[in-house]
Amino acid sequence: KNKRYILCLIHSKERKEKPFRIMVRFHQSLGIIIPMSLFSRTFRASSAFVPNVAIASVTHTAAFSTARISPKEIVKRDIARPIASMSPLFSSPPSSSLRSMKIRPHQMRTTARFATEEVSSYEVDEDEDTEQLLADNSISDSPMEINGVNGDDAPAPNGEAAVPFREVLTSVGIYDKIKTIRDMPEKRPLSQNDVFCNRELKLSALKAMGFDMDYTLAQYKQPAFDKLAFEGARDKLVRALGYPEDVLDLEYDHTFWVRGLIIDTQRGNFLKIDRHKYVRLAYHGFNPISSITRKHLYSRTFNKVPSFTEKSFVNMDTLFQHVDAHLFASLVDMKDRGEYEFLDDRTYEEIYRQVRQCVDLCHRDGVIKDEVARNPEKYLVLDDGLFPMLKSYRDAGLKVFLLTNSYWEYTSVVMNYLFHKEKVGKEEQKKNSWLDYFDVCIVGSCKPAYLVDPYLNLFRVKPEDGSLLNTDGLFEIEALGPDGANKFLEQGKTFQGGNWNHLQAMLEIDAGEEILYVGDHLYADVLRSKRTLGWRSAFIVPELSDEMRVFSENVPLRKKITELRKLRDELSIYGDMLRRTSADPDSEEIKAKLQQIDEDDAVIKDTLAQMAGQYHAAFHPVWGQMFNAGYQDSRFAFFVQNYACLYTSKATNLGLSSINRSFRTGGEMLPHDRLLADADSEFSS
Fold first, then answer.
1. Residue 244 region, left (φ>0) first, then alpha (ψ -120 to 50), else beta?
2. CA-CA distances (angstroms) from residue 78 to 17, 57, 106, 128, 237?
3. How many angstroms separate the CA atoms of 298 and 309, rounded?
């Protein structure tokens, strides 16, 4: 709705060429015109131009400024910065005066970005400028000479201690110019508290940082916390829905489960799939499904590839769902035994739906929150770094907000305990001193709807008693005039519900990329905020600490597995070479060699199966490594890589980084690049 496509007749004053036609995209809300033709002789698709005069419709003509907008600015305006402040330019006829237009103060600041360069949270390095030069053919065909790059590495100076990066710095001729390197540790220190980067992020370019509460700011003790929901839901199934009394004997075991699984509610199955949606491992209840059955159910369906996005498939994206999974699997096993007529009359899907309803009710009716309020020390993990982290980011100029699905009463209990590090009395709790560390607090947000539904209403919460007051949301902020957001928050900064429009208006933020949101739910916190709003995202993975420890302990075994898999691949290549280059591929000699290759491969395959089983069992005896499925990335890892800009084991790890920190990726390679970079490979053109 904000774009129009115009066929333009371009006259070039700088070149003696005939006028030619080119299709351009006119972006109303951003105020730029982008040539769409990749093959134009004068303008490249990476160029964009700002009209000198306003355009009312496609029938008006426009003069173009001669200044070319950089590719980075195009990204800001066209993708990452939907700037509403420019829209008045294109809703009035050409003769209208800019002074007569009503532009809000914060929009005026945004408009100024057109004239001055502003740093984006994506701009960690200047690589994109180099790539653009390559695209524009502005670099000579002859390679640029850098001292030592095309020759041998310079030897280490005699008697000098080992210095990290010495070899590469010497090879490019700048070793003597880099002074800090001699003070750095020889090896990079790595711990379970590190923050890992999938997409480059510059913290100093952020304007706000937000946090979920449950399993993000507040970590829970297992299995004590989960048992509240498990036992509460178990009782509701029996007392309210008439399930057999034997259900009350079911016990909870959180160690059977890992995140990233998919529940097939229609069949009562639990699946682990890889990034290509291939089911690598499957269980029916607590019983493993054979390879043949698994493939017939999920791989060999005629003319149909399962997407695992249908309603009957449920992703285990959060630790809360371990309770649902264990209770459902227990009931699946009870149903399969055929001893309960009540369960025989219900489908697996109906059983799961009732399990989900009962667990959800436990989060709302007091079964969980009342017990946590009575004994917070039994269920909540204290973290000394929490409030110092929040203070450091606020002191650095960032706006900090809390955005949680928990309602006010429970949020107040949890955050007061984390702040005071002990249970406090009602009068002290009513003060809610922890709110001083947040600019905005939103409870009962109903994520992911909060991030996609612009019609959800915003209510103000009175922290003293939890009562709600109506607000007019965006209209009220607008009606307060200049500095409306601050005036709105002066009346109270704690809210329930609403949607992302309210939040960004209160924070006075126009672009999603200026917000970093930290959460533990892969879909509701990370994927939806990233894909819909363009927020930067940090994913909390408490299991990461154990995953890293086990990985580190099994590096030698992993290397052996990798080498043996590489050998199998090279045996296959060698067999193809024999068939292709032999004068007589059907000769007895060639057949014998090929037979020997098959026998060698079988021996390696059997050995690999045992080693791979040992490796995955080190992570988890049933499901193996959380981030891998077979030899591929798991689907869970795929979504983490694609939607989490950062990920770490706990939220306070972010507090170990200053606002000046820039997170960089390690670089990505396709298989052909990895093989070329392998020291054992030899390339022939």
1. beta
2. 30, 20, 19, 16, 52
3. 13
Amino acid identity at 187: K
Taking each helix axis from N to C end, the angle separating 321-336 and 348-362, rounded to the nearest 10 degrees, works out to 140
State the burial class of residue 584 (Cβ atoms within 10 Å of its Cβ: 0-12, 13-18, 19+). Answer: exposed
- In sequence order, what are the residues at sequence separation of 6 or more whose Cβ sits closer than 8 angstroms to the Cβ of residue 116? none
**Cβ(368)–Cβ(232) under 8 Å?**
yes
**Tokens standing for residue 288:** 């493993």
Lowest mean pLDDT among 144-153, 265-274, 278-287, 344-353: 144-153
Distance CA 220, CA 651 (A): 13
**What's the predicted TM-score (pTM) here?**
0.77
Measured CA to CA, the distance from residue 429 to residue 415 in angstroms comes to 10
End-to-end CA distance of the chain: 50
Contact 212, 521 (CB under 8 A): yes
Give the strand order in the sheet containing 262-264.
287-288, 279-284, 269-273, 262-264, 313-315
Residue 114's Cβ-side half-sphere holds a number of Cα atoms within 13 Å equal to 20
Q: Amino acid identity, residue 184? A: M
CA–CA separation, 347 and 331 (whole Å): 11
Q: How far apart are CA 138 and CA 320, in angstroms?
A: 54
What is the maximum span of the chain, computed from C-alpha positions, in angstroms? Answer: 93
Under 8 Å CB-to-CB from 572, ≥6 apart: which residues? 597, 601
Paired sense of beta strands 380-381 and 219-220, if any: antiparallel
Q: Mapping DSSP to helix (H, G, I), strand (E, B) and coil, where does residue 647 land?
A: strand
- Residue 537, classed as helix, strand or coil, is strand
The first and second tokens of residue 474, run together, are: 């965006």
Q: Secondary structure of 36-77 in the HEC alphabet?
A: CCCCCCCCCCCCCECECCCCCCCCCCCCECCCCCCHHHHHHH
Confidence of residue 166 (pLDDT cuts 50, 70, 90): confident
Is 195:648 a contact under the CB 8 Å cutoff?
A: yes
Alpha helices per DSSP H over 508-659: 528-533, 544-553, 555-581, 588-619, 635-643
Structure tokens at 587: 């000769």
User: Three-state SS string across 236-281, please?
Assistant: HHHHCCCCCHHHHHCCCCHHHCCCCCEEECCCCEEEEEECCCCEEE
d(CA 61, CA 94): 10
Residues 43 and 10: beta-carbon distance below 8 Å: yes
Amino acid 199 reads: R
- Rounded to whole angstroms, the Cα distance separating 488 from 469 reads 13
Say which amino acid occupies 477: I
Nearest Cα residue to 51 out of 60, 39, 38, 42? 60
Q: In terms of residues, how long is the chain?
A: 685
Assigned token pair, 10: 């371009």
pLDDT tens-digit readout, 411-438: 999 999 999 999 999 889 999 999 999 9
Tokens of 327: 């209770």
Cα 395 to Cα 37: distance, rounded to the nearest angstrom: 47
| Cα atoms in the 13 Å half-sphere on the side-chain side of 453 | 12
Query: By mean pLDDT, which of 134-143, 497-506, 550-559 is the weakest?
Result: 134-143
The token duo for 517 is 């949101």
- The answer to whether 500 touches 451, Cβ cutoff 8 Å, is yes
Would you say 323 and 226 are in contact if contact means Cβ atoms under 8 Å apart? Answer: yes
Give me the percent of the chain exceeding a pLDDT of 70: 76
